[in-house]
């Protein structure tokens, strides 16, 4: 005689639409559909925890634990729950322009370190002026020129290219030689 297993009713079938839902076209729609399905299954398992049959409750608890172990192993949020919002304190990776600018600054620093100074012939002011002239030919000098132009316009002074460049060099020289406090003189930064 052939034994057949009794049919088991599908208890969650009434929670879903009788016809299958269409597959969402967008990735966000697919993620939302997946989250809703997993969340509905989790709610079903949660309701089964109070089932009078211990075996049903045990299977539900095991399914919940398995899902939680998988979630922890992969380090992700549970489907249907919001993902953490990144804080503003997280550092952003440097851009290509940042890397190039820092590389140029490093090159200038290495060039400055390579210069050998003789104690008897060292002139600090001349050395600073030479360094500023070299710096003025680099792209890193452009923000200082913009600041100098804005400052001269705000003061109502003439701001031709030559005057802006001379003013920026003069301010930088005074700051490097420690002759003037930039805050007191309204210097550019």
Can you describe this structure?
By secondary structure, the protein is mainly α. The protein has helices at residues 27-48, 54-74, 96-114, 124-136, 142-154, 161-177, 182-185. Helix 1 packs antiparallel against helix 2, helix 4 (124-136) crosses helix 6 (161-177) and helix 5 crosses helix 6 (161-177). Residues 181-185 have low confidence and may be disordered.
Layout: helices, strands, pairs:
Blueprint: H1 27-48, H2 54-74, H3 96-114, H4 124-136, H5 142-154, H6 161-177, H7 182-185
Helix pairs in contact: 1-2, 4-6, 5-6
Kindly report the average pLDDT value: 76
H/E element string?
HHHHHHH
Q: Strand-residue fraction?
A: under 5%
Q: Give the overall shape, derived from the CA principal axes.
A: rod-shaped
Low-confidence stretches: 181-185
Q: What is the subunit organization of this protein?
A: single chain
Pairing-aware structural class of the strands and helices? mainly alpha
Distance between the termini: 95 Å
The radius of gyration computed from the alpha-carbon positions, rounded to a whole number of angstroms, is 35 Å
Task: Characterize the largest beta sheet: strand count, sense, and whether it forms a barrel.
Answer: none
Tally of separate helices: 7
Query: Count of DSSP E strands?
Result: 0
- Helical residue percent band: 55-70%
């Amino acid at each position: 005689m052939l034994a057949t297993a009794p049919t088991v009713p599908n208890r969650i079938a009434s929670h879903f639409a009788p016809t299958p839902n269409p597959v969402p076209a967008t990735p966000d729609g697919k993620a939302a559909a997946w989250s809703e399905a997993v969340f509905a299954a989790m709610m079903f398992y949660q309701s089964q925890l109070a089932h009078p049959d211990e075996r049903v409750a045990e299977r539900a608890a095991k399914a919940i634990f398995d899902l939680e172990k998988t979630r922890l192993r992969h380090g992700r949020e549970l489907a249907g729950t919001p993902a953490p919002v990144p804080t503003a304190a997280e550092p952003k990776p440097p851009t290509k322009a940042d890397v190039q600018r820092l590389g140029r600054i490093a090159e200038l620093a290495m060039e400055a370190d390579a210069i050998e100074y003789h104690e008897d012939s060292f002139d600090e002011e001349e050395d600073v002026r030479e360094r500023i002239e070299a710096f003025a030919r680099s792209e890193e000098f452009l923000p200082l020129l913009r600041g100098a132009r804005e400052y001269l316009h705000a003061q109502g002074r003439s701001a031709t290219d030559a005057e802006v460049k001379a003013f920026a060099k003069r301010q930088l020289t005074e700051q490097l030689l420690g002759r003037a406090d930039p805050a007191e003189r309204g210097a550019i930064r």
